[in-house]
Amino acid sequence: MKTTLAATCLVVGMLMVPAMSQAADSDADRAQPMTFVKDSAITTKVKAKLAAEHLASATEIRVDTDKDGVVWLSGFARSQKEADKATSIARATDGVRAVKNNIEIKHED
């Protein structure tokens, strides 16, 4: 009887391992809530500053912040001047350690 119970527990335990490994959260930023909140706050600050500057292409510029305080700008700007302005706004924001500008210039015909 004890052998049967032990074998049953072993089999059930082995069947649960794959399910438990799938349930693990692989997003490291959310595993540390304070880091995730800080990153979101930086992103929000940069977006608010871009909107306040009334850049024509502000709605086409995406802002993301990684866990190290690096801001990633992507999307489209209407001119190099706008792309450079977005970079300088991001650099001047509290908490930003570096800015990676991947903004493309959209030439309108």
Describe this structure in words.
The chain has 109 residues and is α+β, with helices and mostly antiparallel strands. The protein has a single domain (28-105), classed as 2-Layer Sandwich (Histidine-containing Protein, Chain: A). It has helices at residues 2-23, 28-31, 33-52, 80-91, and strands at 61-65, 70-77, 98-105. A three-stranded mixed sheet has the order 1-2-3. The longest helix has 22 residues, at 2-23. Residues 23-27 have low confidence and may be disordered.
- CATH architecture heading: 2-Layer Sandwich
End-to-end distance: 82 Å
Element order: H for helix, E for strand: HHHEEHE
Which structural category fits the helices and strands?
alpha+beta
Described by the principal axes of the CA atoms, the overall outline is elongated
Q: Please estimate the helix content.
A: 40-55%
Text of the CATH class = Alpha Beta
Domain count, please report it. Answer: 1
Return the CATH topology. Answer: Histidine-containing Protein, Chain: A
Beta-strand percentage range: 15-25%
The strand count comes to: 3
Number of helices: 4
Main sheet characteristics:
3 strands, mixed
**Overall mean confidence score, pLDDT:** 79
Give the SSE layout.
Layout: H1 2-23, H2 28-31, H3 33-52, E1 61-65, E2 70-77, H4 80-91, E3 98-105
Parallel strand pairs: 2-3
Antiparallel strand pairs: 1-2
Task: Spell out the key features of this protein.
alpha+beta, Histidine-containing Protein, Chain: A, 3-stranded mixed beta sheet, 4 helices, 53% helix
Task: Provide a brief overview of the structure.
The protein has 109 residues and is an alpha+beta fold. The chain is built from 4 helices and 3 strands.
